[in-house]
């Protein structure tokens, strides 16, 4: 990009501003100002001498300073929502977000805000979107929040309990898949793709068996990079297993039926592994008395790796696994027990034993009366584990505990999610969720 010294004049809502082409170029090609340059980044001069924009001049001044300095200062008398609306018009939302919080780092996270739901307790899941918003499943309702934490119209599933929710991703930023329980006698349940902005149901994902559409309960969700949607499924006869759909058309493309003596249809967690083209399926206590973890290869319709605690001694730590996550770079699976001990299994060994790490032990004494079982997440080489009212951060090749995130309001953490450079933590007792952000780096 050539450095230019050409001065540019704007008349914004009757107020005159002057800047340089170099400053405007910082906005990027996809912005309002990027359209003022040709393919060689030469500014197209307006013959009238100035560019008139019929927008808010106070917001324009703030956004222009953001391009000049990289810092965002919002005066107390200016509504943030107004500024964000103007930033959206100019195509500067990414610049605003980068100035408000920095690149995600679990060891530098700070609490930003807490949002209280309309009804206490019974939160099912929280899922972060790629742009910094989230959705919260609560009973038969899904509440949608954009990155400004403004709530959109909730999605009501007509008293069908929500089991999971997931954002489709960059291909469809407003697309939200919701899985629900079947309602006996009504032939409903399953999954649907919704518009997260309007709440409109676009289409349902059907399960067919022997050419006949079946009613079913959809559970855990996962998405692949090639636009495949996976869900655990429970039908009334033979529809127990993992269904696969094309998320752009809603058509079922595959089904992995549950082998006898194993558990797939009740899975608590699914995770697509891009490197190995396999799906991690984990069915855990208390949904089942035993824990079942497996890797499925849909190309060969085979279970290429599996582990269960069925053959472990009754009093061993293996009997207390509460969550699992695959780590492809290390060819291992990390599990966590009810005391937040981390355990590791080598994927290169079939049905290997769990190697427990005593250095991760954080809980002492007995569990609280109504515990929330720990959940795991992996993000940019950092491992996160929730336990009661805090989230622990582990780093390094030996997964050493480096930080703990805790907020006392709302009770135990029943779920958390990372996305859009934010961490969202949902509390069980008061239906409150916290937002954690990394402070932006200092401007030198």
UniProtKB/TrEMBL annotation:
Pathway: Protein modification; protein ubiquitination. GO terms for biological process: protein homooligomerization. It comes from the Eukaryota. Residues 6-76 form the BTB domain. PANTHER family: OSJNBA0029H02.24 PROTEIN, POTASSIUM CHANNEL TETRAMERIZATION DOMAIN-CONTAINING. This is BTB domain-containing protein. The lineage of its organism: Eukaryota, Viridiplantae, Streptophyta, Embryophyta, Tracheophyta.
């Amino acid at each position: 990009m050539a450095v230019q010294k050409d001065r540019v004049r704007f008349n914004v809502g009757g107020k005159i501003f002057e800047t340089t082409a170099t400053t405007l170029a910082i906005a990027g090609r996809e912005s309002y100002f990027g359209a003022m340059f040709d393919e060689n980044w030469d500014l197209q001069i307006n013959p009238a001498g100035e560019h008139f924009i019929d927008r808010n001049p106070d917001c324009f001044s703030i956004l222009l300073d953001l391009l000049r300095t990289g810092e965002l200062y919002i005066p107390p008398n200016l509504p943030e929502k107004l500024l964000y609306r103007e930033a959206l018009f100019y195509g500067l939302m990414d610049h605003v977000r980068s100035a408000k919080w920095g690149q995600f780092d679990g060891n530098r996270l700070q609490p930003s805000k807490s949002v209280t739901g309309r009804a206490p307790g019974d939160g099912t899941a929280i899922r972060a979107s790629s742009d910094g918003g989230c959705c919260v499943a609560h009973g038969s309702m899904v509440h949608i929040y954009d990155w400004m934490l403004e709530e959109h119209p909730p999605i009501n599933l007509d008293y069908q309990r929500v089991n999971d929710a997931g954002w489709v991703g960059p291909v469809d930023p407003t697309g939200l898949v919701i899985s629900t329980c079947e309602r006996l006698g009504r032939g409903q349940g399953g999954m649907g793709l919704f518009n997260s902005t309007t709440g409109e149901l676009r289409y349902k994902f059907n399960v067919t068996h022997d050419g006949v559409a079946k009613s079913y309960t959809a559970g855990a969700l996962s998405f692949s990079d090639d636009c495949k949607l996976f869900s655990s499924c429970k039908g009334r006869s033979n529809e127990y297993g993992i269904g696969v759909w094309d998320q752009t058309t809603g058509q079922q493309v595959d089904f992995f039926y549950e082998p006898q003596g194993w558990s797939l249809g009740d899975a608590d967690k699914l995770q697509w592994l891009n490197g190995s083209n396999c799906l991690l399926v984990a069915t855990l206590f208390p949904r089942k008395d035993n824990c079942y973890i497996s890797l499925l290869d849909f190309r060969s319709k085979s279970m290429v790796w599996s582990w269960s605690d069925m053959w472990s001694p009754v009093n061993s730590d293996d009997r207390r696994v509460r969550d699992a996550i695959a780590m492809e770079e290390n060819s291992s699976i990390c599990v966590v027990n009810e005391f937040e001990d981390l355990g590791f299994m080598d994927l290169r060994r079939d049905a290997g034993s769990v190697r427990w790490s005593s250095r991760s032990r954080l809980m002492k004494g007995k569990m609280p009366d109504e515990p929330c079982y720990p959940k795991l997440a992996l993000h940019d080489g950092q491992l996160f584990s929730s336990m009661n009212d805090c989230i622990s951060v582990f780093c390094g090749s030996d997964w050493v505990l480096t930080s703990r995130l805790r907020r006392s309001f709302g009770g135990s953490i029943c779920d958390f999610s990372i996305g859009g450079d934010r961490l969202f933590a949902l509390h069980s007792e008061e239906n409150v969720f916290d937002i954690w952000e990394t402070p932006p780096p200092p401007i030198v």
